[in-house]
Design goal:
alpha/beta; 5 helices; 178 residues
Length: 178
């Protein structure tokens, strides 16, 4: 009987610690993306933003989270991936350049969320992505990707890393969709 209780407690803890999935609110400001088959094999990510965003003390950490989040999303779709710093520019190689512009965000690390819980507040991302043919520089379309955590979810609400992972999966799905 005691072993059953321990098993139930362990299972409940595992479910609770897995956290809630981040919900992405996606909007389209253009027609469906028409990505050529050869451009669906490579994704290059470039992240920039408003002055408020780029001058924030945690901007570099936030950009690092983007860099890290896109890799598994691209790999899961069978795409190669690289990150482009500086001004977004086509490279002449086949692929899709995703130029993410951050309007606003609140960076919340897992450590802070677990340490102070709901007192840490909400993590959020308000972003717009331009999809560009990496070879020619032709615009393929634009989308908004926004997400926010909710303090009601407590320490298990999605922090920035989970939110960016969800956004990157949506971006990759948009590139791969036909």
């Amino acid at each position: 009987m005691m072993q059953k209780r321990i098993a139930i407690v362990v299972c409940a803890a595992a479910v609770a610690l897995s956290g809630c999935a981040a919900e992405v609110v996606k909007g389209s400001t253009s027609a469906p993306l028409h990505v050529a088959p050869e451009a669906r094999k490579t994704v290059v990510l470039n992240v920039t933003g408003s002055d408020t965003s780029t001058k924030s003390k945690d901007w570099e950490a936030f950009k690092g989270e983007w860099r890290d989040a896109m890799k598994p999303a691209a790999e899961a779709a069978g795409m190669s991936y690289s990150f482009q710093d500086g001004e977004a520019k086509p490279t002449g190689e086949p692929g899709t350049l995703v130029v993410v512009y951050i309007n606003d965000y609140r960076y919340l690390s897992a450590g802070l969320r677990y340490a102070v819980g709901v007192m840490a507040g909400n993590a959020y991302v308000d972003s717009k992505a331009r999809f560009v043919d990496l070879k020619s520089g032709a615009e393929l379309g634009e989308r908004t990707y926004n997400t926010t955590s909710h303090t009601i979810e407590g320490i298990f609400s999605p922090m920035t890393s989970k939110q960016l992972a969800a956004i990157c999966r949506e971006m990759v799905a948009d590139i791969a969709a036909q």
